[in-house]
Amino acid sequence: MRRRVAVTGLGVICPIGNSPDEFQENLLQGVSGVGPVTLFDPASLPTRIAAEVKWRGPILRDRKITFAIEAAEEALGSSGRPRGEGGISLGIGLEMFSMDDLAACRRPGFALPSSRQDRMSFLQTPSDLCVQLISKRYGLTRPPLTHVSACAAGTDAIGAAFRMVADGRRAWMLAGGTDSMINPLGVGGFCRIGATTTSNSEPERASRPFDRRRDGFVLGEGAGVLVLEGLEEARARGARVYAEIAGYGNSFDAHGISEPHPEGRGAYQAMERALKDADVPPMAIDCINAHGTSTPKNDPVETMAIKRLLGARAKDVPVCATKSMIGHLISAAGAVEAIAAVLCMNAGWVHPTINLDEPDPACDLDYVSHHARRREQRYVLSNSFGFGGQNASILLRAADA
Amino acid sequence: MDQRSQSAACDSIVVTGLGHVVLAPCDPTPYLKVRKNRKFMGVQDDLAVVAAGQAAASAGLGNALGERAGLYLSVGYLPFEQADVDVLFENSVDERGFSMQRFSSQAYDAVNPLLTFRCLSNMPAFHISVNLDIQGPYFVTYPGPGQFYLALEEACVALASGSIDIAFLGGIAYQQNFLVRHHFARIDLPAGRLLDAAGCVVLETATHAAARGARVRGRLLSYELSFHPRNPFEEAGSSEECGADGAMGSASLPVALSLGQRRSLRHELKTRDGICASSCWELA
Description:
The complex is a heterodimer. Chain A is α/β, with parallel strands linked by helices. Chain A is built from 12 helices and 14 strands. Chain B has helices at 43-58, 82-90, 100-110, 115-118, 123-132, 145-161, 178-186, 206-211, 252-259; strands at residues 2-5, 13-22, 69-74, 93-94, 97-98, 138-141, 166-173, 197-205, 218-227, 240-242, 264-270, 275-283. Chain B starts with a strand and ends with a strand.
């Protein structure tokens, strides 16, 4: 017997808000979180802009670990602690190494730092420390899940947690993603493969999903964490139910390393499997939170896959791209965008896709350009498609649907 | 504690394919369906493709598996290649240390952009999916043998639910890499003990295996999984493993199964990150 799964807590740290309320307000106003890179001097790198988190508190050397811990605390604070044994399922980014540390360790007489914490953070911090620290802090006694499916990891983390709660393998889960690649290697690496925009002169206008003049994504950072538990149990303890996770699907493109399947096969399969998992027909979809990277290759292929899924209704269903405001949060993207979808669904609005001045002719859906739109939504799909052809979608259901 | 006893299940999970490789380098060429991807492959990708290719062959499966096959994989810590890092480093430093100016000019032009792909944690999954045309669901986790059990759990659940017919379950450990050695050295594990290895098993339900006339090479009898959280900044933790070679990281159990040196295998492990797991297998 499958349980219905409720979202009872939200925590977000992202370029346009460090709380769900702040995030929602800026989403609906179409605020861009993109600006010049300040975390390091990008010197003459082709891309010198990013969507940074404005964080004034203490922070670990690996920013994504701090983001994950803070988002988890916020999520549990908003939900209260569910009953039973909990676990965590987290999409996590790469353990990038520090070039300064690399230089230091090649100097004569070098020795590793003496304190355990400094030693564990030297050169690179293992990314799985996130789930260990959070599990310890909150007494999570079920084995933690880490997901490394790149840009799909955040959505995969929510999907896997949803399945575990739904079939009773876990009483409740923290689920989400965290990432920060705004460092020399991260920005330089994405530049070198031509993935990021070079529109440095107008940062806030550089992320333009589905627009004819898009030229790559803007790198963002942050974390999103949701609390998932059984719907009946959530109601029994009087928890606020923000939404339900109704279905999850993922797939391989089995095609190209950096380009999506030309017909959007994998993207379609992920969405179709999420709907099938929920036993919900395509005609029930009220909105799609797109992967919408602002890269030349992703946006038309995602459009094609949505059209195949929705058929004649495709142009009637709003499709919005959160990345137009916060950039691409890589392993955290799916989690933060799922939170965006939940917040907008509860508010009765679809947030805008900003900077969409002139749609690409190959992108001919209703992308809610520039301004938020009032719309009641019962079912919202949230998509994440990764480098390497890993695709994931989750279906969200409004709390009272 | 998660406990799964396959004897109580209505349709047991059987092993129909096995593959492993211990010690790099290994040659993935015979298993490549898309030869142009060879230039994107790092050592961990080579290991993954060889182990999965062997497993597919021993299961009597082709390389066009489609939507009814899924991939469940545990990979190790990020293995940036030393040679790539050396190029990056030499072109990024001046007399004061790391120079962003040099990095953004000399190093940027000197590095091969393909290195961006060769170390990524999700790339072994990509290469396996392309070469076997796996279009089904996946679970790609990290970084060690404890997580392999989570992949096992996901594979078993997917098979039992009927959402897939075939599960490729793999563990990849490219560890003779300077970043991985650095990591283990700081938690006091002798880096010299680490091995490069990959193992892959093909799992399916007994009913499905019988229907397609597959040779059954083993059977999963039971597995258990539990967790005791710890603060990695404060506690060193310790690891123990029985029934497989713990120097192989994520690959230890699938390699032990693939080697098949006994009629049955009981595997137990306790990892530094607090996971305790065990499993019992009957081998043909």
